[in-house]
Amino acid sequence: MSLPFAIALALQFDTIGIDRFTDETITSSRTLELARLVRFDVKDDWTPGVEPDFLVTTRNSDQFKGHVPAAKGDPKNPMTTEQVVLKFRQLVSDRLGVTEQDHLIAFGLSHGDRFNLSDISEILSRPL
Predict the structure, then answer these.
(1) Residues 65-96: pLDDT tens digits?
(2) Cα 23 from Cα 26, distance rounded (Å)
(3) Above 80 in pLDDT, residue 41?
(4) Which of 34, 46, 105, 111 has CB 3.0 to 4.6 Å from 115, enough for a Cys bridge?
């Protein structure tokens, strides 16, 4: 995924998540054309970890300013347990049934800080 492609999706849908990256959307002529129109640069004085402001300038010179808050899940904007569980289910639903999801969620919640996500990532990355 590229930033122009993600912006093109965001211009078309209220929300974008992994479920938006379907065969239909990644080959959509409208999305690809919008992505081709996106140009961006990162200023030399940008500091990693600082929430950036942005300025969008259209072809007819209209300008729109905005601010990008810390992403959900960032230490400055932590996710609730419910949000983590929902995100987990969204990410693994094509690989695991509800029962398997429930077992992994219960395991993770019962192990707290000792829970190692890389172990589950390795299991999920195995070929079907």
Answers:
(1) 988 777 778 888 888 889 989 988 988 888 88
(2) 5
(3) no
(4) 111
CA distances in angstroms from 52 to 45, 69, 87, listed in the order given: 11, 8, 25
DSSP bridge partners of 48:
none
The distance from CA 66 to its chain's CA centroid, rounded to whole angstroms, is 19
From CA 98, how far away is CA 67, in angstroms rounded? Answer: 37
Please provide the DSSP assignment of the chain as one string.
--HHHHHHHHHHSS---GGG--HHHHT-HHHHHHHHH------TT--TTSPPEEEEE-TT--EEEEE-PPPTTSTTSPPPHHHHHHHHHHHHTTTS-HHHHHHHHHHHHHHGGG--HHHHHHHHTS--
Q: What's the mean pLDDT in 52-70?
A: 85
Angle between helices 29-37 and 3-12 (to 10 degrees): 120
Question: Could you tell me which residues are beta bridge partners of residue 54?
Answer: 66
> 45 vs 4, 39, 41, 42, 50, CA distance in Å?
22, 19, 12, 8, 11
